[in-house]
Amino acid sequence: MGTEFKDSIHRAVNNANLTGALGKFSEAYKVNRAKAYEGIDFEELRGRIAELKSDAAFRFDELSELFTRNAEAAGATVFRTSDPAKVREYILKVARDNNVKTVVKSKSMATEEIHLNPYLENAGIQVGETDLGEWIIQLAGQTPSHMVMPAIHMTKEEVSDLFSKEVTERLTSDIPRLVKVARDKLRPTFLAADMGISGGNIAVAETGSIVLMTNEGNARLVTTLPKIHIALVGIEKLIEKFADVATILKALPRSATAQLLTSYVSIITGATPNDDGSKKNMHIILMDNRRSEMAADPKFKQALQCIRCASCLNVCPIFRLVGGHVFGKVYTGGIGTILTAWFDELKKSEDIQGLCIQCGACKDVCPGKIDIPDLIMEIRRRLVEEEGMPLIQKAIYSVVNNRHLFHGMLRAASIAGKPLVSGTFIRHLPLFLADLTDGRSLPAIADKPFRDRFKEIRQPVCKEKAAFYAGCLIDFAYPEMGEALIRVLNKAGIEVIFPLKQTCCGAPARYSGAYETAAGNAIDNINALLAEQVDYVVSACPTCTVALDHEFISTFESLGQTEFIPKARILSEKTMDFSTLVKKLVDEGRLSLKEGQVLGAITYHDSCHLKRTLKVAEQPRELLQKAGYELKEMFECDICCGMGGSYSMKLPEISGPILKRKLHNIKETGAPLVAMDCPGCVLQIRGGFDKDGTDVQVRHTVELLAEQLQ
Amino acid sequence: MYQQFKVKAEGVSAEVYRFITNDAALGFIIQFLQKEGVADEPQKFALWADCPFLEMVDRQPLEKIDGVKFNVTRELSVASRFGISQMEWALADTGSLAQKSTGIAQRLVSSLPIIHIALVPTSGILPDMPSLLAKVNPKECAYLAMITGPSRTADIERVLTIGVHGPERLVIVFVDELGGDN
């Protein structure tokens, strides 16, 4: 990562106004969004949106033609181009032909995408933004930090300073007064404008209509008062059917701002009358700018299902810390990372793609059903493919890919780290694990890894067998979790085998875009885990479980390596996470927990991969309560702890504050104990409490259940 | 559906009334205008766009009030405190109003004044947007407008503030006699 980029992150996380405003907003958004969607089957709705948008993306040419025909029949002029430069030239030509001196705009991300304002201003045309947020940032000479709320990063004091200059009056920071000033100041601008420029939220091919939504009412004025109206619409806004407008409008305001509908929706079809009786000089520009290329890309075509609600920003634990400016000048947040890689260039996304911690929160709420984290991974993969991997990472993964060398180094670390151990935590780790200790202590590498301890564990002879996939953390840092797992499964009549040739699950390599390394790991593990006939493959690490369950297959698919896919599928069918397997065994009556225990309060942290990829949330909670714990839910129980594998090494300045928030939320419950199903989260949260000096026990569910076996 | 509409519309700060007869509705509007200070001077005019309601009622009581005007122009719209128009439909599930707004007078009186009074036939209440879009053929309606509550923004510190570029009050007057058994 470049120093400039790191600096922008530092500035952002240390900007209390920004993190305060975004933090408050994200908390309120979650509650309000849920309320706005009450009584609506969100999965059904987003299924329909994804389908109608992806269908449109397959037919851009056909729909563009149909749209053009219908809009022109209704009296509009339609200009189609793939080139942003041609868009700018066209708008300037219309302006010059009609002697336009001033333009009013309602909010349009497409015009931001092509940097229209400076272009027109350089040509001597005055451009007035009229959306309040856009106007504020225009006065401040900034760019939008959020797609829906462009000035969310600014305080009312900053706004009153800006406005005071405009009205040559010293204004206070009274918000209603500031809004009134904007109304009064912009009224004459609207009335004098020769031309209105808008975007378009939807373009309907079968009728040639464009749909505009605002809360302030500025789009109504922009499309009503000036005699010329130009709407700049990206072709991904095309849909075929008029009736489908209702489908998108059902989701867009609910997802964007948790409203049932924006204050104003205008559906404009062709030229409307002006107040002098003439007809509006109306132009619609359908802009491609690489959208067709995107539609032809088997992976990225999905991104065209976006309806630009920005909910992926609103739920992102990273975005709420750093805001939009870190992401760049136009499109921000999760989807923004993807759009920047395409509409700008892949190289531009090099730094910002690294901001994604892969927690999956955005994927859960996306009304276009876009797998944003997966697409960001694909960007990583292509960046690595194009530009190779930084030398240091390459060195690390060449080690990870050599099981003997990797395990040898981890063993060496347990000795080398010794002098620095205090209690069970160490302050420094050798090699690539250095720098990990900022804000969090790290576990000591175990004296004796699980693979060595396993040989000494005596198990009863059982009919069923499970292969245990430990993953690096349980094997080398938390072997006691593996021992606990064996106790639990033995009790249910399952013998646990531990294939010694298992190695790293490949997640670290995959999440860095090193898919070749990940595929090598996948093959080693498939061979190791399927060598002996077993009934289950069980893991107590959700990230490893996801690797075994989904990612081996998708890594092979991404690389076009089909040879191991059938075996990967067999492995996937046998794979289960610990809590799901145990819940099943308890339900089947094969495993009992002690009755009538009163174990006190506990709170539960949902690990990202467990909750959002494996969809497991209730099982561990039910088991812990059955064991006798009293569950006290924490605020934001399913928000990432900031670990994200190597993320916490690469971006400790972001990981740190996210962890701090998590620790705070845990403490607020008053429970002396927090459980979770992921050794990575245990590492992060236990280390956080150790540094912080708070006496809260951090345990994996497997350990807690092993203590309560009947 | 009226009750559902009322709850949703009031939830977004609209004011909702209902009258059985046209005359009762007219009486209410006159009283409202007078209470809110209608007068024959700029920034106090009431500007009423052509609509079926106006043709159905006896306009005489209106003509006695100073400042009520019917010739909608851009200048008068800017100078009016009240804009009055009739809208065809109301959507119960979001508390929205909808209108074929191709005629510019309809848009001027509902977007430039401070207070927008919208008359709606009670029979125009539809359950939701799909039923509205099924009724409107965009090829015959160049400007379909939907209005949900007054103009609003939250662009400064996410604080909800009413009345930016559009009206800061939306007064909805349902009239059963305009057609209706909802």
- Number of DSSP strand runs of chain B: 12
**Pairing-aware structural class of the strands and helices of chain A?**
alpha/beta
Average predicted local confidence, pLDDT of chain A:
90
Q: What is the mean pLDDT of chain B?
A: 94
Tally of separate helices of chain A: 34
Q: DSSP strand (E) fraction of chain B?
A: 25-35%
Q: List the chains of the largest interface with their residue counts.
A: A-B, 68 and 50 residues
pLDDT < 50 runs, ≥5 residues of chain B: none
Description:
The complex is a heterodimer of chains A (710) and B (182). Helices cover 50% and strands 12% of the residues of chain A. Chain A is α/β, with parallel strands linked by helices and 710 residues long. Among the domains of chain A are: 50-291, NagB/RpiA/CoA transferase-like (Rossmann fold); 450-587, Glutathione S-transferase Yfyf (Class Pi), Chain A, domain 2 (Up-down Bundle), CATH 1.20.1050; 600-706, 3-Layer(aba) Sandwich (Rossmann fold), CATH 3.40.50. In chain A, the strands form five sheets. Chain A has a six-stranded parallel beta sheet with strand order 1-10-7-4-2-3, sandwiched between helices. A four-stranded mixed beta sheet of chain A has the order 8-5-6-9. In chain A, strands 15-14-16-17 form a four-stranded parallel beta sheet. Chain A is elongated and about 95 Å long. Mean pLDDT of chain A is 90; it is low at 416-423 and 425-437. Chain B is an alpha/beta fold and 182 residues long. Chain B has a single domain (2-178), classed as Rossmann fold (3-Layer(aba) Sandwich), CATH 3.40.50.10420. Chain B has a six-stranded parallel beta sheet, sandwiched between helices. Chain B has a four-stranded mixed beta sheet with strand order 8-5-6-9. The longest helix of chain B has 14 residues, at 22-35. Chain B is globular, with a radius of gyration of 16 Å. In chain B, 52% of the residues are buried. At the A-B interface, α2, α8, α10, α11 and α12 of A face α6, α7, β9 and β10 of B. β9 of chain A pairs antiparallel with β9 (143-147) of chain B, so a sheet runs across the interface.
